[in-house]
Write a structure and sequence with these properties.
The protein contains two helices and five strands; from the N terminus they run βαββββα. With 97 residues, it is an alpha+beta fold. A five-stranded antiparallel β-sheet has the order 1-2-3-4-5. The longest helix has 10 residues. It is globular and about 45 Å long.
Length: 97
């Protein structure tokens, strides 16, 4: 397996088209990370993509396999902030003892 981080500009059009179709507020989508995973036994690569949807105040993680979304996870920013508040040391906000 080969794992490679890529820019959003390097993603194939069928991936970016699906993101645009699902999240029609494209100007308010802010990329976080895109990863391509290539397996020797699978013809098509797998794409793991995360981005911030500013309109909905959520972080979205999508997994594309065989030209379609096979997994979608959404996490509200409120949940992230609560986790940072509750466990600051895990986020590097407070020294561990």
């Amino acid at each position: 397996m080969q794992v490679k981080h890529v820019s959003f500009d390097e993603l194939p059009s069928h991936v970016t088209d699906e993101i645009s179709a699902r999240y029609n507020s494209q100007p308010n989508i802010q990329p976080i990370e895109a990863t391509v995973m290539e397996f020797e036994t699978v013809a098509e690569p797998t794409y793991a993509i995360s981005f911030l949807d500013v309109d909905r105040n959520i972080i979205v993680e999508l997994t594309f396999m065989d030209g379609k979304i096979v997994h979608e996870n959404r996490l509200t920013l409120r949940t992230v902030f609560k986790a940072m508040e509750k466990y600051p040391e895990r986020f590097g906000l407070k020294e561990r003892r």
